[in-house]
Amino acid sequence: MIAHDKKKLDNEFLIDEADTLYKGGFINKEQKKFIEKELPVLKGQNNILVRIGFFLLGSFLYSSICGMISLLGLNSEDIYLQICFYIFAAIGFAGSELLANQEYHNHGLDDAFILGAISQVGIAIAITTEDYETVIAFFVAVAALFMFLRYLHVLSMLIFCIAVTAFLFFEMFEFGDVGKAILPFVAMVFAGAFYFITKKIIKNLTKSYHYNGLLLANSFCLVLFYFSCNYLVVRELSGELLGTEVKPGTDIPFAFFFYAFTFIVPIIYLVQALRTKDRIMLWLSFLAIGFSFYTIRFYYAVLPIEVALTLGGLALFAIAYFSIKKLKEKENGLTFKPDRINHSDNFLNAEALVIASTFGMKPEIKTVSPMEFGDGGFSGGGSGGSF
Asked: Is 43 helix (H, G, I), strand (E, B) or coil?
């Protein structure tokens, strides 16, 4: 299923591990360069600005090809309009495959064709179905999942997650007001189930090719789970979807649950992140806590904004100060000291990189000696049957 050379994909992970070892001080710069020289990899681009530049160049190339084909189909406007975006999508798929065969991966040029193909699929289905959102979301999700599995394109996984969520929402809208009313709870259950599914898949991975995409999907589930029953989101969507008007002295149904959910879930994220040392969940917990306070202040402004910001800044400063003071001397567990190395589960053979870079990773060379040893000859190397 994967279009790229798996050996070179493995080499990319090994080079990443070598870079981690170099930053941790386990190998020197010469050893790192030697490893990079000895391990051939795919044509990628780590510089985000250069990658954006290649993406713009690839987009120009893609649009030029589509424009040239459009010039040939102008004579039959109605028929061509119905099929042109399918042709454009096919060009995107063909270009993605061609670039993969040319060993482009996360380069920028391949991003343009991959994302272009997904977008053209959505536009083509929209024209055919006359903007039927559920069907559009379904086919976009399928196209994005294919791109991720085939070309290991992480951004396609994000599109897949968004498209699947949109498909769920549009399906619930089909049930009318009842579906809209229970949508927060359905989204919460969906996010929770999807989170544990991706977590289990990550745990059972034997190869790390799909690790980054699955990690992104797992993090997306955490965000969706929190926003699914956040009080502000639920209340505002209730007004938009159901036309619910909250009059003074009243509140939305199950308001107590949504209030509790808004503050309890970020705390659960924080505790779980500290327990499992999950850095992504830790950052998400901080963002969720901040948004929870914003949610309450959006409806109940107890203090002027400048006073609230000042007090909040003082509280955060105090928490940071005392946390640093307590953790700065700890050597293990949760500590303020910088990581010497980021522990990664991608590969467990980091020691092999150190050994290989130390001893040179060169093939064994047999030396031909002019001296013959054994059988009582020169140098006394062994003895034969004669004195």
From this structure: strand
| Among 357, 4, 330, CA closest to 149 | 4
Number of domains composing the chain: 1
Q: How much is the pLDDT for 77?
A: 62
Q: Fill in the amino acid letter for 160.
A: F
**CB neighbours (10 Å) of residue 244?**
16
DSSP-assigned beta bridge partners for residue 104: 43
Strand-pairing partners, residue 43, are: 104
Whether 19 is in a domain gets the answer no
Distances (CA, A) of 134 to 125, 173, 296: 10, 10, 33
Residue 242 lies in a domain: yes
CA distance 88 to 148: 19
Structure tokens at 386: 């004669």
DSSP structural state of residue 104: B
Q: Which amino acid is at 323?
A: S
Domain limits for position 265: 232-300
Integer-rounded Cα radius of gyration of the chain: 29
Q: Are 36 and 94 in contact (CB under 8 A)?
A: no
Residue type, 210: H
Alpha helices in 24-108 (DSSP H): 29-38, 48-72, 77-101
Whether residue 93 contacts residue 110, with contact meaning beta carbons closer than 8 Å, is answered with: no
Residues in the chain: 387
pTM of the full predicted structure?
A: 0.80
What letter does residue 380 receive in the DSSP assignment?
A: G
For 43, list phi and psi in degrees, rounded to 5: -80, 100
| pLDDT mean for each 10 residues of the chain (387 residues) | 82 82 79 82 85 93 89 72 88 92 88 94 91 92 94 93 94 87 91 93 86 93 93 86 74 85 91 86 89 83 74 78 72 62 48 50 46 49 46
Instruction: From 277, 271, 270, 269, select the one nearest 343 (Cα to Cα).
Output: 277
Nearest Cα residue to 123 out of 149, 92, 148, 99: 92
Please give the structure tokens belonging to residue 201: 């898949």
Question: Position 370: which residue type?
Answer: P
Of 271, 266, 244, residue with least CA distance to 255: 244
pLDDT of residue 338: 61
DSSP string, 176-223: HHHHHHHHHHHHHHHHHHHHHHHHHHHHT-SSSTTHHHHHHHHHHHHH
Query: What's the token pair of residue 242?
Result: 């159901």
